[in-house]
Predict the structure.
Amino acid sequence: MDTDLTFSSRRSPVVCLHGCVASSQSLASNIGLDTLKRGGNAADAAVAIAAALAVTEPCSTGPGGDAFCLFYNGNTGEIKGINGSGRLPRAQTLDFLEGRGYSAEAPPSPSDALNVTVPGAPACWCDTVELFGSHKLSLQEVLSGAVELAEVGFPVAEVTAHHWAHWVEVLRDAGKQLGRDLLIDGHAPKRGQVFRNPALARTLKELGEHGKPAFYQGRVAQAVVDVINQHGGVMTLDDLSGHNSEVVTPLSTEYKGVRLWEPPPNSQGLAALLLLNILENFPLKDALRYLGDPDHVTIPLQTLLDKSYSHQRAQHISMDRTMEGVEPGLMTGSDTVYFCVIDSQGNACSFVNSTYMGFGSGLVPKDCGFSLQNRGASFSLHRNHVNCVAGGKRPYHTIIPALLTDSDSKSQKPQLLAALGVMGAFMQPQGHIQVLLNMLEFGMNPQQALDAPRVFVQYDHKADEWLVNLEEGIDQEVAEALRRRGHKVNWPVTGHKRSRFGRGQIITVGDWWNPSVNQADRPARVLWAGSDPRADGCAQGY
């Protein structure tokens, strides 16, 4: 029952000096911290956590999904990113789908094999270690904690057990018997029940030993192609072997002395930056009109991020009445994991990994131990849409990691202030801004910023209207005031339904968010961290 998830305790922020990790699973956080203590850096630890979460939270993440990361180099101040999103099979064009009888009004079902895009996460893990890692630990050593977790087994955590059961039917769909690899006697594991995944242990072990070819060629690649084609998809071995991550330069915007960094399109990081720019004038409906694969569409990033554009958009906002005629975008659910690491050298890695809707397609390649994402479900079948389906195209992506620095001058490197993120489909940009403003404007520490109740604005397609979701903890008076102004309000959202507000992690360098501390009196380098109470995880430091 939803009432099982009560918020009745408080948690202090984790405070430490050397290194810190935060994730949605305590066992994964422990593996990340152990990686730091063994000589790895923030990038190594982030990949160790990513693999561990694939074991402990397969209903949200895994090697069958996509990933994005941002990395701050503590020596140079340079910020780079990796776009680890995969593409549609080359043969899967709009003409092909229309030839099968699909249309914008009648697209393939979300769990259809035609919605499986090439998994980008394994390549992103390998590239993160190669490009940003310490090189003191091999990829095999980085993945060893997750391999052991999968071989020995682990007790399933409480919130994860709920979501595992919620998404279990996609594994039981007709013809998807291979989904039993992620079940115990045909059922989702209960909280506290020990789950082993020897097939995933083998996959991770091979990835550690042989790198990307172990996934995109050979045994695993053949198993991926086989299960997709058995269920009507058209992915080929060439689609897999041709996959590569993309190193990207993040986008950023300045707000009251700080700079927020987000990955560029095809991610929705632009939405968070636009929202922050508009709020500087005193929320935002533009992002879905512009976001897609930049290889397939020209996106006016400079114009959109110009402060004058956001000032213009802010003029349309009334504090007294709901806006009229706001066009909705495609709204779909998402299960994702976000996690972050800051190490003793001042490096930071902000990382997000997802299989999209729960177990994604529900397709589990034979003897591989993971399900394949259904990220292709976010494509449009409208021929002139910026996110229209096309062979070899990356979809609009909801997942976004973020970094925060000071508002740097050109004469010096930007100083790291935080690694942060909030997962959860279209909640993500809204969540980024809410937790950031909780710290910047209201002086909350990272844990308080994550604990605070949230707002989620979404489009209800069935009712053809915008819905303002207010989490339990927000006063009824606020809900009633919004209703008087013409908003449709859902209040209070309680229990496990709070998952729609996302699950975040934050690590800050220093307590810059504390208005009572004089800047000159701040301690040299203290890390503060919080982990979202809506998940099973924790922050850990040393």
Q: What stands out?
A: The chain is about 30% helix and 20% strand.
